[in-house]
Structures are given as structure tokens and as C-alpha cells.
Specification:
The chain has 186 residues and is of the alpha+beta class. Among the domains are: 1-63, Alpha-Beta Plaits (2-Layer Sandwich), CATH 3.30.70.100; 121-184, Homeodomain-like (Arc Repressor Mutant, subunit A), CATH 1.10.10.60. 64% of the residues lie in helices and 9% in strands. The chain contains 9 helices and 4 strands; from the N terminus they run E-H-E-E-H-E-H-H-H-H-H-H-H. The chain has helices at residues 11-23, 44-56, 65-82, 92-100, 104-115, 119-137, 142-148, 154-165, 169-184, and strands at residues 2-6, 28-32, 35-38, 60-62. Strands 2-3-1-4 form a 4-stranded antiparallel beta sheet, sandwiched between helices. Strand 2 and strand 3 (35-38) form a beta hairpin. Helix 3 crosses helix 5, helix 3 (65-82) runs parallel beside helix 6 and helix 6 crosses helix 8. The longest helix is centred in the C-terminal third of the chain and has 19 residues, at 119-137.
């Protein structure tokens, strides 16, 4: 049996879900971002308890097919951008379509209808968040980041970063340095 969980977008969320399942003695075969595959049927009472406990942690069990599909799309994108250290070798649309076994046009139309933005816009927002994260860690330079996130060039990454944040990547990095030096002076 598969359960779909909204807002389950990080490793911490996965730990919360695992803990809640363990409390109810529900055995999971797979706990992925947005989805849990359990080994047995669960009672209505345990299902309701799980739903309530997940809500307390900001997570939500889903039953609506469109919502489930939207969360699956988001999960694939988040996993692809935030949890993969390798550059994607295929086109994003092909990757998403292959992972979810749906035609990309169908996925794109549903996503836009429900979320009010395109899948491409969601990908860009997540890529910029990942760039910010990598800039703050200071482990990679902009060229390495642009390659890792499948940008055609550093200029393309910089332009997209500025369009979304209003700042250049180098200025963003300087802000972080200034913040840290100000904290060290106290």
C-alpha cells in the first residue's frame, strides 16, 4: 500500500515519517520524498492517528490524485536538484516524464493548472535556491556550480540568479562574508 505525503521534501521529513510509522508499529518497505510504501494495510484508526500526527509536523496525507501527482513532480525535481551531486545528462522534461511514467505535456498542464507556475519556473526557483546553498558553503566556484546544475554557461546562471534574487551571485556571496565578519566582531 502506498501513502502520499504533502510537504515531505527533506531528509528530516523522512525521519519524522519513519518515527510516526514506528510509533504505530507500521512497517514501511520504502520511505521516499512524498511517498511511503507500507507492507500491510492499516486500520482506519491508525490511519487517522498517522494523519493527525503528521499534520502536527507540517505534513499532510493526500488522497486526491492531482495533488498526489503534483507532489510527485515536486519530489522528483527537488531530489534531482537538491540531492544529486552529479550533473543531469538528460533533458529535465524527459527525466521527469520517465520517472513518473507520464507524458510530459500532461504533467506540465496539470502542474501549471494547480500551482499557477510552470514546471520550468519551479525548476529554476529550486536551482537558484541550490545555487544560494552552494555559494554559502563556499566549496564550489561558480563555474563548478553552473556545470553541476546543468547551466549552459556561468553567464546564464548569473543572469538567472539576478533575475530571481535581484542580486548577482558574487554580491550574494559578499553579503554572506560581511554578515559573518560582523558577527565575529561581537
Amino acid at each position: 500500500m502506498k501513502l502520499y505525503i504533502k510537504y515531505m521534501v527533506s531528509l528530516r521529513c523522512k525521519m519524522v515519517v519513519k518515527d510516526e510509522l514506528a510509533k504505530l508499529e507500521i512497517h514501511a518497505a520504502v520511505v521516499d520524498l512524498g511517498m511511503v510504501e507500507i507492507l500491510e494495510e492499516i486500520s482506519n484508526e491508525d490511519g487517522e492517528t498517522l494523519r493527525i500526527n503528521l499534520l502536527k509536523s507540517g505534513l499532510e496525507l493526500m488522497e486526491d490524485k492531482k495533488s498526489i501527482l503534483i507532489e510527485q513532480i515536486k519530489g522528483v525535481i527537488i531530489e534531482m536538484i537538491h540531492y544529486s551531486d552529479e550533473a543531469l545528462k538528460v533533458n529535465y522534461s524527459d527525466y521527469i516524464s520517465e520517472k513518473l511514467n507520464y507524458d510530459y505535456t500532461y504533467l506540465s498542464n496539470i502542474f501549471s493548472e494547480v500551482k499557477g507556475i510552470t514546471i520550468q519556473q519551479f525548476i529554476i526557483i529550486n536551482k537558484i535556491e541550490r545555487v544560494k546553498e552552494l555559494l554559502l558553503y563556499n566549496e564550489l566556484n561558480l563555474t563548478e556550480i553552473s556545470y553541476m546544475l546543468n547551466y549552459s554557461s556561468v553567464a546564464h546562471l548569473s543572469n538567472q540568479f539576478k533575475k530571481i534574487t535581484g542580486l548577482s551571485p558574487s554580491f550574494y556571496k559578499q553579503l554572506k562574508s560581511k554578515r559573518n565578519s560582523n558577527l565575529e566582531n561581537f
